[in-house]
Amino acid sequence: MCILSDVEYNQYGNAEAHRRYGSIGTLLVIKVSAESANQFGELVADPVTKELLHYAEKPETFVSDLINCGVYVFTPDIFLLSRELFPIGKIEKMCCACLAMCLSIRQQGCWSNKPTIGLPLSIYPQKLLLTSSQLQRRIRILLGDFLRLDQDILSPLAGKKQLYTFETADFWKQIKTPGMSLKCSALYLAQFRLTSPHLLASGDGARSPTVVGDVYIHPSAKVHPTAKIGPDVSISANVRIAAGVRLLNCIILDDVEIQENALVIHSIIGWKSSIGRWSRIQGDGDFDSKLGISILGESVTVEDEVVVINCIVLPNNVIDVHVMKEIIL
Questions:
Q1: pLDDT at site 245
Q2: CA 129 from centroid of its chain's CA atoms
Q3: Which DSSP state fits 38?
Q4: pLDDT digits over 158-208, tens only?
Q5: What is the mean pLDDT of the chain?
Q6: Residue 13 scores a pLDDT above 90
Q7: Rounded Cα distance, 130 and 125, in Å
Q8: Is-contact 141 92, C-beta < 8 A?
Q9: Is 126 left (phi over 0), alpha (psi -120 to 50) or beta?
Q10: How many Cα atoms sit within 13 Å of 279 on the Cβ side?
Q11: What is the dihedral of CA 106, 109, 114, 118, to 10 degrees?
């Protein structure tokens, strides 16, 4: 079985559905509003058998409120079936390029324990730093030609009892902007409230920090009792948070230090970064905007009493002046 996904794949259940169907492929699908459906691949499925009957990628006219979530389960037979749709040379070339790229990724050390996005948090296994879409783009450069999953596989096989669908009732979000990482983190934290409440922190400001709403704090993190955390905050391993700090709707990655009376809101703070005393790292919370939140890369230092608003700061920078709506290289 092969699982292809651009999202965290854990709880959806379509792998089990795929085994029940006994088909070549199963798509994870979800219902959305009719107004937003044309931003995605729309599809029609049999209401009883769940067979994929029709597929259209971002159609100009409305087809269905059922959309493709971008999570697929295929059996190896998909490669044999591809030979019927495309010349053998193209498929062999594609497979060789995929293998070469994967070997190259391993040799270049592109595997990492650091998550590609700040979803909560340190509890997930290793991830590949390249998403399937990034890998596809690299393969496309090597080939000069490529296999399009939507047009070359899904559409031709629809209605031929080869592909089936599994509709999820869980949350699903497409991450097209940096701010959507914060939105998805909040959704995960809300889900933990229902499924794994023991992972969420609590505190009243006496012997532990004041916690508001859904908050995850790694056991190795050190948070001063006078700090106020939440809602929708995720704090990773070995983070140090000093007295009087206020954190709202943010992701704090490993080994970050946030000094006294600093404020972080609508922001992602990268590994090993340092936030100075009385500093303010803030975004306006527009998750659909490219600069709707603030992001600090790895090992960024923000000096004391500095304000950073709606900025993206690349790694290893020192910020000692106020900045707003900038990308700092």
A1: 97
A2: 11
A3: G
A4: 898 889 999 888 778 878 888 889 998 998 899 899 889 999 999 887 889
A5: 81
A6: no
A7: 15
A8: no
A9: beta
A10: 22
A11: -70
